[in-house]
């Protein structure tokens, strides 16, 4: 489930039947570990995005300064970059809040 988009694909990649894989998913410890690893993958993605932000901004600035690029192209490049950055930051913040809530629930139980 870390590198696939469906239970069927994840089961096949793990060499398990879909039924067996579904049983794993019903195990709370397995699900918790899966969520942790998914969060780690997303955090690494966000970190990589942040690490390349400078390069992306430089490219964006080059396009914006490029006299041969159309106004629409320059505007679209800026809007696209800002939208992707917003989505990644928003997702990271949601995951942090969710993890805090899960930790609070575990502490109460």
Task: Tell me briefly what this model is.
This protein is mostly helical. 83% of the residues lie in helices and 0% in strands.
Helix content: over 70%
- Roughly what fraction of the amino acids lie in strands? under 5%
Flag low-confidence runs: none
Amino-to-carboxy terminus distance: 27 Å
Q: Major beta sheet, specifics? A: none
What's the tally of helices? 5
Order of helices and strands: HHHHH
Identify the overall geometry: elongated
- Total number of beta strands: 0
**Gyration radius, to the nearest Å?**
20 Å
Structural class: mainly alpha
Taking all residues together, what is the mean pLDDT?
88
Folded structure, characterized:
With 109 residues, the chain is mostly helical. It has a domain at 52-108. Helices cover 83% and strands 0% of the residues. The chain is built from 5 helices and no strands. Helix 1 (7-14) packs across helix 2, helix 3 (28-51) packs antiparallel against helix 5 and helix 4 (53-65) packs antiparallel against helix 5. The chain is elongated and about 60 Å long. The two termini are 27 Å apart. The model has no long low-confidence stretch (mean pLDDT 88).
Topology of helices and strands:
Elements: H1 7-14, H2 18-25, H3 28-51, H4 53-65, H5 71-108
């Amino acid at each position: 489930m870390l590198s696939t988009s469906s239970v069927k694909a994840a089961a096949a990649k793990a060499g398990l039947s879909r039924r067996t894989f579904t049983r794993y998913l019903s195990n709370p410890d397995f699900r918790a570990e899966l969520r942790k690893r998914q969060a780690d993958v997303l955090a690494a993605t966000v970190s990589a995005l942040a690490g390349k932000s400078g390069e992306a901004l430089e490219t964006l600035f080059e396009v914006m300064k490029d006299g041969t690029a159309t106004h629409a192209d320059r505007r679209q490049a800026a809007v696209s970059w800002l939208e992707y950055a917003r989505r990644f930051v928003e997702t990271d913040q949601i995951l942090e809040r969710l993890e805090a809530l899960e930790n609070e629930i575990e502490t109460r139980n």
